[in-house]
Design brief:
The complex is a heterodimer of chains A (624) and B (187). Chain A is mainly beta. Helix content of chain A is 12%, strand content 41%. Chain B has helices spanning 7-22, 55-62, 77-98, 105-131, 165-183; strands at 29-35, 38-46, 51-53, 150-154, 157-163. Classes of the chains: A mainly beta (624), B alpha+beta (187). Chain B: Keywords: Membrane, Transmembrane, Transmembrane helix.
Amino acid sequence: MKKWVPAASGLLAGFMAATVFFADFSTGPKGTASNDNNANKSNAEKVYVPYGELDEYYMLSSGGHSGQLFVYGLPSMRKIRTVPVFSPDPATGYGFDTKTKEMLGGYTWGDFHHPAISETNGEYDGKFVFANDVANNRIGVVDLSNFHTADIMEMPNMGGPHAGTFVTQNTEYIVMPTRFSVPIGKEYAPLDEFEEKYKGVVSMVTFDQEKKKLDMSYQIMLPPWSYDLSDAGKKVSGDWIVMTTYNTEFATTNNEINASQNDRDYIVLLNWKELEKKVAAGEYEEVNGAKMIDPRKHKGSIYAVPVAKSPHGVDVTPDGTRFIASGKLAPLMTVFSFEKAFEAIKSGDFETEKFGIPVLPYDKIVEREVDPPGALGPLHTQFDDRGNAYNTMFISSEIVKWKIDTGEILDRTPVHYSPGHSTATEGDTASPDGKWIVSLNKIAKDNFLSVGPSHPESMELIDISGDKMSLTYTAPVDPEPHYAQTIHRDKIKTIKIYEKDEKREHSVWKQEDTRIERKGNEVHVYGIAMRSKFVFDAKAKRPDEIKVNQGDKVIIHLTNIDLDQDITHGFGIMDHDLNYEVQPGQTSTIEFTAEKAGTFPIYCTNFCSALHQEMSGYLLVEPK
Amino acid sequence: MAKKLSAGSMASLIGAAALIFASIKFPWWGMKFFAPQYPEGLDIIVYPSTLDGDIDIVNGLNHYIGMAEFSNESFPELQYLPGLIIGLAVIFIIIALLRRKSLLFVPVGLLVVGGALGIYDMNRWLTKFGTELDPKAPIELEPFVPPIIGENILANFVTHSYFTTGSFLLGAAFLLTLLPFWLERRK
């Protein structure tokens, strides 16, 4: 053997070993993708809420034309509950039992836009959340002690309360301005008479927290502009409401073009404290059951501020000193000073008057215009605890962070895609938390597994606690969220069961007290549900039978006497389109006419125990 | 040798009477039930005059195994027990005031006999409730007797039975009734 062979093979073996152990087999230079991968790992940790722990925030999100309230946990973005507000819900019997059926008033849907949590001193107090139904001129309120809709009220003289719901800083009023002006009482009037006959009305609603009852305090009659969004002042501006308008052109057709002609529209400033005094002094007209006040006849309560064309959102800063309008068609945010506006008002410094409304000089009350290069379609502003504002940009699909005091653009992050509103943690309060912002996107093309032509809307969670925003998580959502408010979990105090109230009307708490009473052709059942049976009449041969005659009116009062957490019973009657639930300690009632003769099983629809399947009975309807 | 009890012994007996009296206001015995669906636990808490805790929930669950319902009415003892306790405290005070050494055995005897009867009575109830199960109950179960003290497993429930504040006060009262024997040892 040649001498060089062992030497060469030794060298080769050496190189082989070195290659195996030390070589870098990766192809080419590392891209940002692998860095992103690392970032995603930490993002996963940020949103992961381990078993046994709870999310830090409730996000109360509008369900749009589902008419429902969606409740999410943050930061996990887990959907916790769907609360039916303006639409019936078979799962809970909402809209089927007597009380909620009456509350829905015959409607089977509503267009839920802007939830507003009740406030005390400009802070969410976690007691109630109000909501507007743009489709049917209603306001609803959800009790946050049980996440049930407590009351719904239909408002006269309105054409869709889009620019609400927002509450004044101590929930004195829930404000609901009209989007589509209509003649008073929706009487017939040709569109040629739009300017004279049509009105944009603002409803000032009060809520009795003890009786859980909504009431119309008074309404404000305004020119037939479209009121888009509104906000209530805080602290120095606490007596004021700001509202954006579009269609100051009074267009009545093809609004896409015709309502987009004026270079300037207006922000309306209303002093609700002044109006309240005038109404109390009797300076109003009674119009379809509402006290209607025309602020143009009462100086000092209404002003207009010119603003770049077709503005959308207007938001008051946490300290209450400024309001920021976002120009839907003019791509900039305008910061106005309340103090400067008050000065102009005090000195009577008005530019002109439009429809009897004094117009404040734009140049004197504007603090600055903020126009991030290339950012298009600013819609809404949210805030953090460090003096920064966050704007959604519908057209350029991003969120822009900027400093309110200087207008300096601090950061921009893309979202996917077309954000409408956003919600920052405690973002509408006098003291935002500055931890998270959720972008409520209108489009989510290709972000999730396909379910056909209609892609889900999406929500993106962005960490805003640092200097730079960090897109952290995304979640699909049922159609369609408009707006949300995010409240710290410590502020919401839920009940676990309903109190055993022996005086409650129609309630029965002992099996032996259950009974079926006949009054003419009405049959009243006073029954109980408990694990795992129904008792309608303890003394009957079969306590779980309801026997009536064809044509009888049947009224079933059912009390769940299981005062045990999470033991909800359902009550479904076959072939009757009826199902409702009773939660622990609750009494609910349904009414129906037994039109069909026959035999109809009754069963517990809400899983309650190991013997849930056996929890049943019969409705027997004897033929005439 | 003086026949009269010392002031210390008197105080000790009166203290015992006070503790016995006070025990009426405290729970004597309890049972806590844990199950996967009840990680927070369900309570039965027994005061001398009343039942407390999650009695309705426990009754609701017990109907599955056909156990009779717990209620204040199902235990006649709860009607007269406070009277007995007050009587006992009064007897202690009388003995303390009489200051007769020979009567020192009465409180100790009463507590021993009373305690033994109490435990016998409890065991009787536990046996009755655990063994006289409704034969028509949906879940058929071997008769069982929960312990007066300690852990027991029944179906999906782990139960802990325990004596608590009121019983400890009685125990302390018992020690106070023994103290005079030591205080009077040299007389």
